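Build the 3D complex.
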Amino acid sequence: MNTSPSENSCESCPLVVCLVSRLAFECTVTVRDALNQALDEELERDERVFLLGEEVAQYDGAYKVSRGLWKKYGDKRIIDTPITEMGFAGIAVGAAMAGLRPICEFMTFNFSMQAIDQVINSAAKTYYMSAGLQPVPIVFRGPNGASAGVAAQHSQCFAAWYGHCPGLKVVSPWSAEDAKGLLKSAIRDDNPVVFLENELMYGVPFEMSEEAQSKDFLLPIGKAKIERQGNHVTLVSHSRMVSLCLDAAAVLAKEGIECEVINMRTIRPLDAEAIETSVMKTNHLITVEGGWPQFGVGAEILARIMEGPAFNFLDAPAVRVTGVDIPMPYAKILEDNSIPQIKDIIFSVKKTLNV
Amino acid sequence: MVNIFAYFIRYPNSVRSKILGCDLHRLDEGPSVQTVLTREDGLRYYRTMQTMRRMELKADQLYKQKIIRGFCHLYDGQEACAVGIEAGISPTDHLITAYRSHGYTYTRGVSVKEIMAELTGRSGGVAKGKGGSMHMYAKNFYGGNGIVGAQVPLGAGVALACQYQGKNEVCVTLYGDGAANQGQIFESFNMAALWKLPCIFICENNKYGMGTSVERASASTDYYKRGDYIPGLRVDGMDVLSVREATRFAADYCRSGKGPILMELQTYRYHGHSMSDPGVSYRTREEIQEIRSKSDPITMLKDCMISRNMASLEEIKDIDATVRKEIEEAAQFATSDPEPPLEDLCKHIFYNDAPLEVRGTHPWMRLKSIS
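Done.
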């Protein structure tokens, strides 16, 4: 029974929608608002949690993800930093070592390259190097991957780079529920978590179940979700590309091809078991990602399938649908053709199924 | 043999000592040039420095015997810095340094045994053999850090936590003359000053960044001024009392909420940069010998104590003998303790986590990681 919803859960609902959906105990929430809720709830729950990054406080967040938080929590908990990624990422890691639970925002993950030494060498490896003496409970979050028209230096996907490193957990949410549940889990996790959001997804609304509206709604890191059941081919994806897979699946369904769409949710640790189980059912695998092909997320999934029990169930080679292996161009026609489109997924499915 | 004379000789409990004044930057006053050295403190500083010295020399030996591998950056010559700093702060304060860290690991409370066993990569090491020379940790001691300069933002972050938690603690953040030009250090200065973090930045200037002298690396070698808007002081790092007074001054400054402060300790390392560096291609043996004979921190303290009648030569020799024995026993432990078991290979990836499968060197090797 949905008792009075928390102040935060329906802030974004237009009244009519909210009234209607409240009858069904559900609500429509954008990814941005889901992230905002997660931050708000975790800041309230644990005093050691704080947020730092560029424009997170007085500007309400470059992408408004932290809207309202500075007003509510003040300078101590929401900290605007100068434009010095290496410095403030290191400061965040040091604060985590000394007992706080920082959330370090990178305005985009492209800028995390300036601070990547702190993420890998100071955060990820420390618990191991110290044989358990020094945990580092920190979350690095921000938008990752291609946006729209921001060109080469602002469009790189870092899932593969961070996913490569032991000692890190790497999460890549798709829906509003993913965003909320996984961010809350990331903040409560006692280990360094790289949380890859997507700018183009921030404004996308999703239905949020009653369960997801609770202040203790958590999603486990390391477990994928089957967004759509199917028998003919497995599509594995993460972040925004999950939307494209579902759209492609809808089109293919009209032709009698049923795709099983898996939303990875977590890049590292990778839920290979979920993928294997699905492949053993559908006998066909296609991975879909926005990042570059070489040494990418899809490459890892394919290698694991080769090495695991699902290989013998493949009726065709597993393939990857990825971004084009080029720096991201600016002109719209070029940009549109640099990342996977629905038609690319459809084409690949038909090729794999030999139809 | 008990020194019965010790019962009869009266030592002054403390003496007033005059120390060198500090060069100041943006400070009207510096630490006092008068300090009091008690007999108890003097003997303790002597013993601690001597322990550190002998520990590093033993490490040198073990490295040459190939019992210690990889990187080994020795601290002998710089003992007064670590001991003086520790004397100027409390155990509840925090400290972080770079890779020349064995001395600090000791002053921050880890036993010689555990340090040496970590150097030899045994399970009795402070990091169970998984960290090695550059990655030793203790309560309120954040290592041991291998990447030059990276520890400075970390230290500023620890200071942020001190401020946030309101416990009136400070963080001592050390770096060398080589690291002093790192951009991230200036980023840390900026944020520490902006947010008034209780951070004592300390540059241990031992005149050489690996094989490069300070003159060849820095456009300005006045490291105590490099914090620009952050007040600084330059201190004689070979005199334990000077370091102690300066640290006390700096800690008071930080605790009063004025923000960060910068200290440059002028010091010297006898060994090369690491055990792979003989240390004589970029400096003369004469220079090293000169420092040893005229400015050795341990000799200077010993001479001070003996000349002021605060200790007898006998007593000092007794301490030396005790220290030598302790180091021998630690080395014995470090060479005989077993290496960590293979089961430890995948442990400690994550904290407080369910057991995780870890891929081995081939697909059939499935290892388990336990928190």
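Chain B is about 40% helix and 15% strand.
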